[in-house]
Design a protein that fits this description.
Shape: globular
Order of helices and strands: HHHEHHEEEEEHEEEEEEHEEHEEEEH
Helix content: 10-25%
Distance between the termini: 36 Å
CATH superfamily of the largest domain: Lipoprotein localisation LolA/LolB/LppX
CATH topology of the largest domain: outer membrane lipoprotein receptor (LolB), chain A
CATH class of the largest domain: Mainly Beta
Number of strands: 18
Number of helices: 9
Strand order of the largest sheet: 7-8-9-10-11-1-2-3-4-5-6-12
Largest sheet: 12 strands, mixed
């Protein structure tokens, strides 16, 4: 337990990956096969079409390719050796695989109460199913099942909410809605032609930051011309090269899936782990000590910083700037750990991820991906944002 707590102090790179993963979501990408001839439409009209879309049912297949510019294979291996996991079927661990490489998934949805996602990996399959008050996950490779039960009582608050941390990945529309929230003086939104996505006619919406210092070059969303449902999402970095995310439907059907698609019964001989029992065991092992940053960090960062600031009476987050160049500043209240004190499995990884930097603030290390970067100063402050290294150093120098 002591080794696990010590190791958690060195997981700043995971925060970077976590923010990127939270920003990315699971959304489909372009499968171009000719540009259809569609009536002209303005960006405002296309945004209104997305907002008016109310697609509740669909099924299909999509592929997702992710290139964060981060050696996530080594990172995942390093993390896997710390603390271990009670179940290989736990979605909070399994779905992190999607932030690296290319994957094929099958998806089905029937309103907010029923969704299913299946990750195909050769002959092995991993399925995540939300059906009413139940969330099931099954890993065929290990023959393990993870089950989480929502609060009992149909009328109880949150009775039909998926437990936090076990949600199914975001839909294309949910991601598009989040990106469109950035619209304003800091953002350029245009319509850039048409495309074919999974055999359907689509418009291409292009979103670009106007602010200097952002690592985001553009976000492109292919929108179904008939229904207004987003079908494609491509996130590109100012670094160029492969898109950070290129994910898209190769097949899609908007008819209602069969009810049997969302039923699940644990296979004979499978190991079943109950999420509630797992949580209770974890709280007992930790002495029911809360996460000092819970509720303070952006989604994707909570629980990642481990022991930073724990017991110090300090901590908290401050947001510097706005729009695409907003930076989250977190003060741990304690000096940053030295790299040579890190567990062996982390030392090489930290060296490969980090660039040493200096400034008026002192010195520190910038941990990098193609989109989200983080500066950890030697006095224990953390600056995180979808901004360049220079922008992080400038924020630290400002002393805000």
């Amino acid at each position: 337990m002591a080794e696990t707590r010590k190791a958690s102090r060195f997981i700043v790179p995971v925060a970077v990956a976590g923010v990127a993963a939270a920003t990315i979501g699971l959304v489909p990408a372009l499968a171009a096969s000719g540009d259809p001839d569609l009536p002209e439409i303005t960006a405002q009209q296309l945004i209104e079409k997305i907002a008016a879309s109310d697609t509740q049912t669909l099924s299909g297949t999509f592929k997702i390719s992710t290139d964060l510019g981060l050696p996530l294979g080594g990172l995942t291996s390093a993390l896997g050796g710390i603390g271990g996991g009670p179940s290989t079927a736990d979605p909070s661990a399994k779905l992190t695989e999607l932030v690296s490489g290319s994957h094929t998934l099958r998806v089905a949805a029937d309103g907010p109460e029923r969704q299913k996602l299946t990750l195909l990996d050769g002959s092995d399959e991993y399925s995540l199913i939300h059906n009413g008050d139940d969330v099931w996950a099954y890993d065929s490779k290990s023959n393990e099942v993870f089950h989480e039960k929502a609060p009992a009582g149909a009328d109880a608050p949150g009775a039909h909410e998926v437990p936090k941390g076990k949600e199914l990945p975001g839909t294309p529309k949910q991601l598009a809605d989040e990106v469109l929230k950035a619209a304003g003086d800091t953002t350029s939104i245009t319509v850039d032609g048409t495309a074919k996505v999974a055999g359907r006619d689509a418009y291409q919406l292009v979103i670009k930051p106007k602010q200097a210092g952002s690592t985001v070059e553009s976000v492109k969303i292919a929108v179904d011309a008939a229904s207004g449902t987003p079908l494609k999402f491509t996130l590109s970095s100012v670094e160029g090269g492969k898109p950070v995310v290129d994910a898209g439907f190769t097949k899609v059907d908007f008819s209602k899936p069969a009810a049997s698609d969302f039923t699940f019964k644990a296979p004979e001989g499978a190991k079943v782990t109950e999420g509630a029992a797992e949580k209770a065991a974890g709280e007992k092992a930790a002495g029911e000590k809360g996460d000092p940053f819970e509720g303070q960090l952006p989604e994707g960062l909570e629980g990642v910083f481990g022991d930073f600031g724990a017991g110090s009476g300090e901590g908290g987050m401050n947001v510097i700037g706005e729009g695409w160049t907003a930076i989250a500043k977190i003060d741990s209240g304690a000096p940053a750990p030295k790299t040579d004190e890190a567990p062996k499995e982390f030392q090489g990884l930290l060296d490969s991820l980090g660039d040493k930097v200096t400034g008026k603030f002192g010195s520190g290390t910038v941990f990098k991906t193609k989109i989200v970067n983080a500066l950890l100063t030697d006095d224990g402050k953390v600056y995180v944002g979808a901004v360049t290294k220079d922008a992080l150093v400038d924020a630290a120098n400002s002393g805000k």
